[in-house]
Specification:
The protein is of the alpha+beta class. It is 32% helix and 25% strand. It contains eight helices and twelve strands. Strands 7-6-5-4-8 form a five-stranded antiparallel β-sheet, covered by helices on one side. The protein is elongated and about 80 Å long.
């Protein structure tokens, strides 16, 4: 099955294609561009139409990138404004180095092209070693499991994972269709369709015990925005007001919305397990106040029941 190209994939391809073609003043044959970036002619024309909408303020014709096909050759020319030197802070420079390193892995990118040369110059100014300065921290997540999920996401393959259930703390095997891998508050998550739940779910990568890619592909549409969490709108939600001293607990879970106030932080959560919510309320104790909750959750009753269960265990 042909892999569905998302807007994220297309953007990454364009960011590699534009500097490579622009680095050839006489243009590049259409067939060569198509072969290098694994696109057909129609896709290439659509990409060039998109490129021609890129520019800088005030977006007049002289500030826009020019892209066209002439004599069956692709030509791309930057506007004069793009030649102006950038003034970057150290943080901005390191962020740009990280982004450029990501683009270096895009199929069709030029290892010795203008992007890599600019990356080398920028790294030299910052005083960073391009090969060692930027490192992805997976925290407690397994690199092997992360790679299985990332490859399966790219190839649109279903994955079988062993994952502890929040309702009974038992290990269960789930088959998922991974659509997004993203980092939030120091943890890595994978979101996608879960066949066991027959719904979208979000899983913490460091809690996945094992992962195995299957031969089954999937064609279910996925969100294009990187890092977007596809919460099911039908899932019950709860809004909690938490003392700032306890807000760190929410670094471990994805939240729908966050509102920082003077002494407290309000979090809105999409709840997939009422037992998990009960344990969270017990853990927070007087540091939390339920501001709003879907009636089906019965948040106060759940907290009381969980509290009685815990007291019984200690007795």
């Amino acid at each position: 099955m042909t892999r569905r190209v998302t807007a994220t994939d297309r953007l990454a391809r364009l960011l590699a294609l534009v500097p490579w073609v622009a680095g050839h003043p006489d243009g590049v044959p259409v067939d060569q561009v198509c072969a290098r970036f694994e696109v057909d002619r129609d896709e290439l024309v659509r990409d060039l139409d998109t490129v021609m909408m890129v520019g800088v303020h005030p977006y007049t014709p002289d500030t826009m990138i020019e892209a066209w096909i002439s004599d069956d050759r692709v030509l791309i020319q930057y506007a004069d404004a793009f030649a102006r030197p950038l003034r970057l802070t150290a943080h901005e420079a390191v962020t740009m180095i990280a982004a450029a390193r990501g683009l270096a892995a895009v199929p069709g990118g030029d290892d010795n092209g203008p992007l890599q040369r600019a990356l080398g110059k920028l790294a030299a100014v910052v005083g960073a070693d391009v090969d060692t300065a930027i490192e992805v921290d997976l925290g407690d997540a397994s690199r092997e499991i992360f790679d299985v999920l990332d490859t399966a996401r790219t190839e649109r393959r279903q994955v079988e994972i062993a994952y502890p259930d929040t309702t009974d703390d038992q290990q269960h095997t789930r088959r998922i269709e991974p659509s997004q891998l993203f980092s939030s508050s120091g943890n890595w998550y994978v979101s996608g369709w879960c066949h066991r739940a027959d719904d979208h779910r979000v899983f913490r990568v460091d809690r996945i015990i094992s992962a195995r890619a299957t031969d089954e592909d999937f064609s279910r549409p996925v969100a294009d925005a990187p890092g977007a969490v596809a919460f099911d709108e039908s899932s019950p939600q709860v809004e909690l007001e938490v003392a700032r001293s306890a807000a760190w607990l929410f670094d471990q879970v994805p939240v729908v919305a966050r509102d920082d106030r003077d002494e407290t932080v309000r979090f809105r959560l999409s709840i997939g397990s009422t037992r998990w919510l009960a344990r969270l309320l017990v853990q927070l104790g007087p540091a939390v106040r339920v501001v709003d909750a879907d009636p089906v959750l019965g948040a106060d009753r759940l907290a009381a029941e969980e509290g009685r269960r815990i007291r019984a265990i200690y007795r």
